[in-house]
Structure formats: structure tokens, C-alpha cells
Amino acid sequence: MLWTLYNDDIYEESESEDIEAVRSQSISILNGEINAEESTIPLGAMLFSLRQELLQFIPEESVSRFARMINRYFIGLEKEVQYKKNKKFPTITECIALREDSICLYPFLQLTEVETGVILPLEIHEHPVIRRLQALACHLVTYFNEVQSVVKDEATGSIYYNIVKVIQNERHISLEEACLEDLRLHNEDLREFVELQSSLPDFGIWQDAMVNWVHYMSMVLSGWKNISTKLDRYTAAEFPGAAELKAKLNQVQ
Fold first, then answer.
1. Which of 62, 148, 154, 210 is 20 to 30 Å from 201 by CA-CA measure?
2. Are 73 and 11 in contact (CB under 8 A)?
3. What phi and psi values does residue 112 have, to the nearest 5 degrees?
4. Residue 70 contacts residue 77 (beta carbons within 8 Å)
5. Which of 252, 197, 246, 251 is nearest to 221 (CA)?
């Protein structure tokens, strides 16, 4: 969680080619291809330590899946930076797909194996219902986050990938109306999540494990809502401005 927050705040003001270099090294560290000393990124040692610690609880295959989800996050982050640099809004559909990756929830959902101690087979992870539940979870966190951070994003010029601002731009409506539409989308996906959770398909010998896995997923959603409402990074008095973020980036490079 700390790595995600650090990384996001450092690189959301970077150029897309810089993010590509960070993405490449981060994934190489997580996959065990290079060590912290061979990397040039500020958070390399943190990722190397994370890999070593994860391997005490889950197999290499699970760590590789975790790394693939981190890769999705970087691809989303790079797209965000491009929209911001070009001062161009995506469509609502494009923004939802972009934020599904850049919200960086997919990696955390993979780590449920650490919490439960149950290593699930590949066919379970690739099951369309499980993949849909994960996508919905990412959407729900995003919709909640967008309303919460809209003031921060307006102040830092990050409106081009905030779903609320994208809705406002595309529909030509007020900020309040855009927030209400964001809430409607949230509730729509929440209903689908609850319906899928209450009527899971038959996973055979993995049924109990999957019921518990999806329950953990719902706990992540509740936990994030409870924690994020108390984070100073989303309050107008506390979040760092763009100039401060750039200054911090120059210090660590």
C-alpha cells in the first residue's frame, strides 16, 4: 500500500517515457530478473524486499501474476499522464477502463492468497465470474475515489482522468450532477457485485475457498472506504500541489 501511494505521487507528474522506464525496472525486480542494486529507480529496494517477503507465503507463479497486475497499473498511469499532458478528456467508457487499471486494486486482490493461505489454480483466477468481480471491485473503488478526490484533481490539473470531471465534460452538466451520475454508476456496479457474490457458480472442491475469497474482496472494498475517508491526501488543506510533487521527484532522482 505504501509503495502504491509513494509511486503514484512521485510519477503522476512525470513524462510517459519516464514511467515506461520505471515500469520496466519495477516488473523486472518483481519477477526476480534484476535486484535492487541493479535498478536505478528510487523505490527499487522496496519492491525487491516485497518480492522476497511474498515468496515466503506464495509461489513464484502467484508473484508473477501480482507483477502482471502491477504492470497493468503502470500502463494505466502512463495513459493518465498522456491525457493530462495533452489536456484532453477521454470518453466516459475509456476513462472507466483506464481507471480500472490505474486505481491499482488488481494487485491487492491477488494477495488474498497471502491472507487466506489458499493457493488457487489458474483456471479459478481466469474464470469469467471471478474476473468480472475483480473488475467491479476496481470500478467501485474508483467511483468512490473520484468524488472524494475531485477537489484535489481540480487543484493539480488531474481532471482529465477523473471520472466525475469526464462525465461533466462529456454530458455538459454541473459538477453536482456529474457526482450524482458517478454515484449511480457506483450503485449499479455494486448491485451486480452483490448479485454475483450471492450466486457464485460451482467451483467444485474450491467452492468454500472461493466463497471466502470473494468475501475477502468485499472486505477490501469496505476497508478502503473506511480508511480513505480519513486520509489527508484527499483534503484540500493537506494534499501536495503539483509544484511540490515535482520538487520531491527531483530530490529522489
1. 62
2. no
3. -60, -30
4. no
5. 197
Q: Sign of the C-alpha dihedral, residues 241, 182, 19, 40? A: positive
Residue with cell 526476480: 32
Q: What is the pTM of this model?
A: 0.87
| Residue 97 or residue 8, greater confidence | 97
- In the chain, the amino acid numbered 18 is D
Q: Tell me how crowded residue 170 is: count the other CB atoms within 10 A of its CB.
A: 15
CA distance 109 to 253: 31
Mean pLDDT of the chain: 90
Cell numbers that stand for 248 in this block? 520531491
**Residue pLDDT, tens place only, 4-40:** 988 988 887 788 788 999 999 999 999 999 999 999 9
**Residue 167's pLDDT is what?**
98
Place of cell 475531485: 150
**H-run or E-run covering 135:** helix 128-156
Radius of gyration of the chain (CA): 19
Going by pLDDT thresholds of 50, 70 and 90, the confidence category of residue 48 is: very high
